[in-house]
């Protein structure tokens, strides 16, 4: 393998992130003559003028390895460390002793305080590695620098075989571009990978969904058969796409059913909270369907259709749904609490949304079944007495309650029981008395606090990057896509956003 000469750190790179206005100083032949390693190229460039950093680095590193092939990429999906850590491929990476690296220590706080103390890793500003990939060997030099709002990362893959270098870049970027164990959420104009939403979906189960059995079986059969029926759709020359609308008052199972579907289907789930984009709703809609087509087959969830569709964006949205471009493999599920607000062109045209599923307020039998569900959950808690007689009493007193309201009754009752158990309240009270009191309390709030009935797949607006302006937000997206969500899949290598 090729080896660098021994390199000595001759200057600190404090100007790397300073962004000072440089004077234009051209590179001379004498500069090239006296530089004999990639580190000096990087340090000298950032210690002086730096217009066209990407071009300077590429040409100067190429001059150092004139007898080798240099393949350069700035693709933010290319990350040799994440590829080595998670792909299972035969790849070995060794930091070169002969090249001096520039690194920044980065602390990554855990998503939750109880998950530990976080970790400290390295964000590499400049570095070089020897890479063995299968029977191929490369040298890889990487440099990262800011330009305006953007953070540029440029990789130089040095080898004797340009075709092998391209194959290595393709394999690495393909693996790194497919994030695992996340749900892609579109809001505020961009897609973000949501690990916590994926985590919450793993707890969903159709066993926990209390619906009319015929409705549940029909719904399950609908989406299950769709993803198995591509050949049948093609046989009859029908576009392989399906549109469903979940409608009904809030809090009656639409959200938990969506979670159960997203967990069960073995295709990417895409979740849309808003069409808003810094360039307008049309740009947002275009980005949403472009991503869905790229991920197909997939399930595309549009929350609160009646709020998403407006007079201004309706025509553009319908054109995308109708598939002026190929929509094969898209299962589109829209939800609404107000079907009467939907445009008839959306709700009454089968080629757009083929089937509507109504989630009404639960019947007496369903309310009793829901009480049975809680009776079974609480059976092992000896402090709680839940007699069968309470099942009918609960069902009678919760007329017009949604599932969300009924859940609130049980949860608030259990909180009172817990408070009494830890000694904050002296007066004893049996579970029946507490539960019925909470039902009465919720009945009184029925009209004044309707938000108790609402539910959403996500809460709190998610973890999108801050800032404003299209280019800044788009670049910050790279931070969220490539850091902090991989768990044990790989080490921290770089944050393509500014110093965080």
From TrEMBL:
Q: Which controlled-vocabulary keywords does the entry list?
A: ATP-binding, Nucleotide-binding, Signal
Q: Does the keyword ATP-binding apply?
A: yes
Annotated signal peptide: 1-18
A molecular function (GO) held by this record is: ATP binding
GO cellular component terms listed in the entry, alphabetical order: nucleus
Q: Residues in domain AAA+ ATPase?
A: 240-363
CDD domains under this entry? RecA-like_protease
| Pfam families assigned | AAA
What domain of life? Eukaryota
Gene3D superfamilies named in the record: P-loop containing nucleotide triphosphate hydrolases
InterPro entries per record: AAA+_ATPase (IPR003593), AAA_ATPase_domain (IPR050168), ATPase_AAA_core (IPR003959), ATPase_AAA_CS (IPR003960), P-loop_NTPase (IPR027417)
Q: Which GO terms describe its biological process?
A: ribosome biogenesis
Q: Which family does it belong to?
A: Belongs to the AAA ATPase family.
| The protein's name | AAA+ ATPase domain-containing protein
């Amino acid at each position: 393998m090729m080896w660098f000469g021994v390199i000595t750190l001759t200057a600190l790179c404090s100007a790397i992130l300073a962004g000072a206005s440089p004077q234009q100083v051209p590179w001379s032949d004498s500069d090239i003559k006296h530089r004999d390693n990639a580190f000096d190229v990087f340090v000298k460039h950032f210690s002086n003028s730096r217009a066209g950093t990407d071009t300077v680095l590429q040409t100067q590193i190429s001059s150092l390895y004139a007898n080798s092939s240099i393949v350069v990429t700035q693709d933010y999906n290319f990350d040799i460390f994440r590829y080595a850590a998670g792909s299972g491929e035969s790849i070995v990476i060794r930091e070169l002793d002969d090249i001096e690296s520039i690194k920044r220590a980065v602390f990554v706080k855990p998503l939750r305080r109880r998950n530990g103390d976080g970790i400290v890793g390295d964000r590499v500003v400049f570095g070089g590695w020897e890479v063995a990939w299968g029977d191929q060997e490369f040298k890889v030099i990487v440099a990262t620098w800011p330009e305006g709002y953007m953070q540029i990362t440029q990789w130089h893959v040095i080898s004797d075989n340009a075709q092998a270098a391209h194959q290595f870049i393709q394999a690495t970027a393909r693996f790194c571009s497919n994030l695992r164990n996340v749900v892609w959420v579109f809001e505020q104009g961009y897609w973000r990978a949501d690990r916590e939403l994926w985590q919450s979906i793993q707890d969903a189960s159709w066993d926990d969904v209390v619906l009319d059995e015929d409705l549940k079986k029909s719904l399950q059969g609908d989406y299950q058969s769709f993803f198995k029926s591509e050949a049948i759709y093609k046989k009859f020359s029908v576009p392989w796409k399906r549109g469903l609308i979940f409608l009904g008052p809030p809090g009656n199972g639409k959200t938990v059913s969506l979670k159960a579907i997203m967990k069960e289907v073995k295709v990417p789930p895409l979740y849309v909270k808003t069409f808003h984009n810094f360039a307008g709703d049309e740009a947002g809609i275009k980005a949403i369907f472009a991503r869905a087509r790229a991920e197909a087959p997939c399930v595309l969830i549009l929350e609160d259709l009646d709020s998403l569709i407006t007079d201004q964006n309706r025509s553009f949205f319908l054109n995308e749904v109708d598939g002026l471009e190929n929509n094969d493999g898209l299962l589109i599920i829209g939800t609404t609490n107000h079907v009467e607000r939907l445009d008839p062109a959306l709700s009454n045209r089968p080629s757009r949304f083929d089937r509507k599923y109504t989630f009404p307020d639960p019947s007496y039998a369903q309310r009793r079944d829901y009480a049975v569900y809680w009776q079974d959950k609480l059976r092992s808690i000896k402090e709680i007495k839940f007699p069968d007689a309470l099942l009918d009493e609960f069902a009678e007193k919760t007329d017009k309650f949604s599932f969300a309201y009924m859940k609130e009754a049980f949860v608030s009752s259990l909180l009172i029981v817990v408070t009494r158990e830890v000694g904050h309240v002296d007066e004893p009270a049996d579970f029946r008395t507490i539960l019925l009191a909470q039902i009465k309390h919720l009945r009184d709030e029925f009209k004044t606090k309707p938000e108790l009935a609402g539910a959403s797949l996500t809460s709190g607006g998610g973890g999108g990057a801050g800032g404003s302006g299209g280019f800044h937000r788009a670049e910050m997206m790279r931070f969220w896509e490539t850091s902090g969500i991989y768990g044990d899949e790989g080490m921290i290598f770089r944050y393509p956003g500014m110093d965080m």
